[in-house]
Amino acid sequence: MSESELRSQISAKEDDITKIEEEAAKKDASAEKEVNDEYDSKIDDVKSNLDSEQSKLEEATEKAAEKLERLATKKETPRK
Fold it and tell me: How far apart are the C-alpha atoms of 74 and 66, rounded to whole Å?
């Protein structure tokens, strides 16, 4: 086999490798888009629910603190 034939084969193999790498990159991008399309809305829903529940928790915590404060005030006030 001549040197030019070997170079030609090497070049062909390099071209094959480049094609495979490009196809893999396209498939990877496609898979990432599929995952994003499927889960982004679910993640947004969960975040929204979390924000809502966090707000409820803060409100309940404030109310509980107010009740405790009122109870403490009642205990401090002497009865007649």
Answer: 12
The residue among 59, 40, 36, 37 whose CA lies nearest residue 48 is 40
- Across the chain, which has 80 residues, the per-10-residue mean pLDDT values are 94 98 97 93 95 97 93 74
DSSP string, the chain: --HHHHHHHHHHHHHHHHHHHHHHHHHHHHHHHHHHHHHHHHHHHHHHHHHHHHHHHHHHHHHHHHHHHHHHHHHHSPP-
Q: What is the pTM of this model?
A: 0.52
Looking at this protein, which amino acid is placed at residue 2? Answer: S
